[in-house]
Structure to design on (725 residues):
């Protein structure tokens, strides 16, 4: 398939693997954090790790919006359905994520809640137009990538006078999360030599948004696409920087990402959203100025105002290592719950259920990876 | 035989109501003018509560399948043709020659009679084309809101030819795994026609009855080890079922698995994996490696096996995993489908 196959070519991968093996210095380790779940899944789905030398390892980052959403926010959404009888429109990723008391949106739906999976904010608006007698809430989630479509939906609802529509906003920002991980490095986070930076997010905010990684923390960052060759090329770029002792922001994903990003989308976001003083991230805790709320001017379309939603703080299941995994401190296989009580069919934490979660990637693609695999591939 | 009603059903404007399931005259008329009219065969025309027939000696198989699908009509088929193909395929995956079908309909009050007739006509056409008649059935009506238009359950019986012993527990290390054609066509065709996800595609469901393909394969190699149609859960889930049943592992070659570019494109767009997308006209055959070439040649001669390919082989593995050599050069596990495959946010 055009525009995809070019970035999954096995022959090029082998050549790149050879170059990486030749470039990586044998006497040092390269601990690279792939920030996004999209990268994690590309690494596992295509077997990228098998093509890396022993001393180049990937640490999985917190870039999975479903994984970092605190449980309390899902409890909030379930309460909307059960107490206010709203039609809740959600992206499919959230539907099986565990909430408190062994609930999930899927179970709330089975109990009679009107929860509908949508593919875009436009679907949610469509549902609101079709049910003028019902309150319709869009469960907005995601990093900067999915924020502009939410902004558009809010503006459209305002323009149309769609009074039965509102948005439960859970949009969060990537740079504060990255800063938290780098600040805590060595203690509460893993040691990171370099970062494979977000791809889709960067189409919106641009590569310069990560300048602080290099300037403040002297950690090189390469914006990397989600295809496996993107991941490998970016890895090579990071290795070259580390060998040279430089730390700059580079952009491998030039076919989409620019330095300044998408200004129109940024303006749209600024018009509809403002920064929350602080917001809870699952695994990372309370992070200042890390999330968006709907501006006062659009408060009538904010579900948190309309339904007077309380702040709910709920602890994760005891023994769940998701917080350490999201900080890169542990691998999913270090968790005692992994594969025993926590499986995709019966997830204890969001990382096991999200399509971008590290635990799901380990479970689906690599839970019994044999030590011999690498040699077999090399042979 | 004169039937006890003078005015014909208004199929163009009428709809199903509770009297059509009450056991009275309205129900008899619905059965007569829609079901018997389209399925028409000698056994059905006896108007008994059961069909009675003589069977040859040998091993008989029986299979039943409930069909619920939204939308009822999709590119390349509808719930009617699907309910015939699905059960014929379940019967013939034992190597059996399917003989008869039964059909039970649960109709939702308000279903337009024209839609019902279109479904039944399509079902009758599929059954005639396959040479497997629907010989008895049942109809119930549920109140509006308690069904999804129509649910159809079909049961099929068939006879296994002497000397054929196909079962999911027969896969052995070294066996070849053959797939009859491209994967994901049905699932993506159905998804593309869902109301809230309309995207333009020329994709058609692959819904088809596979018994003649199976018969042509058995002619060449009666000693096929396993046959299964990778329906819900797709190729990945079906292969996992077989590894568990046979106590083996499998190693697939991603490059050898046929996927149409339009299926691949739609999957990329929605974040789905074609390995997990449903098929309704494909089969997986596991056979001794020495039989593989002859079987492959026979399959490729049949219209439903034109794109058949050897996609991997069975290996010994205590974990009973399906693994895949990726086209990219690595290796990954191909796991069971967890829950429903859901499109991703970003």
């Amino acid at each position: 398939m055009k525009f995809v196959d070019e970035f999954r070519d096995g022959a090029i991968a082998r050549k790149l693997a050879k170059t990486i093996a030749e470039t990586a210095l044998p006497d040092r380790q390269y601990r690279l954090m792939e920030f996004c779940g999209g990268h994690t899944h590309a690494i596992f789905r295509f077997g990228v790790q098998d093509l890396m030398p022993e001393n180049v390892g990937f640490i999985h980052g917190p870039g999975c919006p479903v994984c970092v959403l605190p449980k309390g926010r899902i409890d909030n959404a379930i309460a909307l359905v059960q107490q206010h009888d709203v039609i809740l429109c959600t992206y499919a990723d959230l539907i099986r994520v565990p909430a408190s008391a062994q609930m999930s949106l899927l179970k709330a739906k089975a109990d009679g809640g009107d929860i509908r999976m949508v593919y875009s904010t436009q679907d949610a608006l469509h549902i609101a137009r079709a049910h003028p007698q019902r309150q319709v809430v869009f469960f907005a989630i995601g990093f900067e990538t999915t924020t502009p479509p939410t902004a558009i939906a809010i503006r459209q609802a305002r323009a149309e006078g769609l009074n039965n529509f509102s948005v439960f906003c859970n949009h969060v920002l990537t740079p504060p999360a990255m800063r938290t991980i780098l600040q805590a490095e060595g203690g509460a986070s893993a040691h990171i030599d370099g970062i494979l930076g977000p791809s889709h997010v960067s189409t919106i905010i641009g590569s310069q948004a990560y300048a602080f990684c290099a300037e403040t923390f002297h950690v090189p960052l390469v914006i990397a696409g989600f295809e496996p060759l993107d991941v490998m090329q970016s890895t090579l770029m990071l290795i070259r920087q580390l060998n040279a002792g430089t730390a700059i922001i580079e952009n491998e994903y030039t076919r989409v990402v620019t330095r300044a990003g998408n200004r129109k989308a940024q303006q749209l976001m600024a018009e509809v959203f403002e920064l929350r003083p602080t917001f809870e991230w699952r695994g990372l805790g309370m992070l200042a100025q890390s999330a968006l709320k709907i501006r006062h001017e659009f408060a009538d379309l904010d579900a948190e105002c309309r339904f007077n939603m309380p702040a709910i703080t709920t602890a994760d299941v005891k023994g769940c290592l998701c917080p350490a995994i999201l900080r890169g401190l542990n691998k999913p296989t270090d968790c005692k719950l992994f594969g025993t009580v926590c499986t995709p069919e019966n997830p204890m934490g969001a990382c096991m259920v999200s399509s971008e979660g590290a635990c799901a990637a380990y479970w689906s693609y690599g839970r019994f990876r044999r030590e011999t695999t690498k040699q077999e591939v090399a042979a | 035989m004169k039937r006890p009603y003078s005015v014909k059903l208004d199929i163009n404007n009428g709809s199903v109501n509770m009297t059509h399931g009450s056991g009275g005259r309205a129900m008899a008329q619905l059965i007569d003018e829609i079901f018997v009219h389209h399925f028409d065969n000698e056994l059905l025309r006896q108007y008994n509560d059961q069909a009675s027939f003589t069977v040859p000696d040998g091993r008989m198989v029986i299979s039943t399948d409930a069909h619920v699908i939204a939308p009822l009509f999709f590119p390349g088929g509808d719930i009617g043709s699907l309910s015939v193909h699905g059960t014929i395929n379940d019967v013939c995956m034992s190597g059996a020659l399917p003989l008869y079908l039964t059909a039970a309909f649960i109709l939702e009050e308000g279903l337009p009679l024209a839609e019902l007739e279109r479904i039944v006509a399509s079902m009758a056409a599929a059954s005639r084309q396959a040479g497997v008649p629907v010989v008895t059935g049942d109809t119930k009506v549920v109140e509006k809101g308690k069904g999804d238009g129509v649910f159809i359950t079909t049961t099929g019986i068939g006879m296994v030819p002497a000397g054929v012993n196909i079962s999911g527990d027969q896969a052995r290390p070294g066996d070849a795994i053959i797939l009859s054609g491209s994967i994901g066509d049905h699932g993506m065709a159905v998804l593309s026609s869902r109301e809230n996800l309309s995207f333009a595609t020329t994709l058609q469901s692959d819904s088809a009855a596979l018994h003649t393909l199976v018969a042509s394969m058995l002619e060449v190699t009666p000693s096929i080890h396993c046959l299964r149609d990778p329906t819900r859960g797709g190729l990945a889930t079906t292969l996992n079922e077989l590894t568990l049943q046979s106590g083996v592992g499998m190693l697939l070659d991603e490059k050898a698995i046929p996927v149409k570019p339009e299926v691949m494109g739609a999957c990329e767009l929605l974040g789905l994996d074609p390995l997990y997308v449903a098929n309704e006209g494909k089969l997986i055959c596991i056979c001794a490696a020495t039989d593989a070439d002859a079987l492959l040649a026979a399959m490729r001669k049949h219209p439903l096996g034109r794109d058949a390919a050897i996609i991997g082989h069975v290996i010994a593995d205590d974990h009973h995993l399906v693994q895949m050599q990726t086209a990219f050069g690595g290796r990954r596990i191909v796991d069971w489908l967890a829950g429903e495959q859901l499109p991703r946010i970003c």
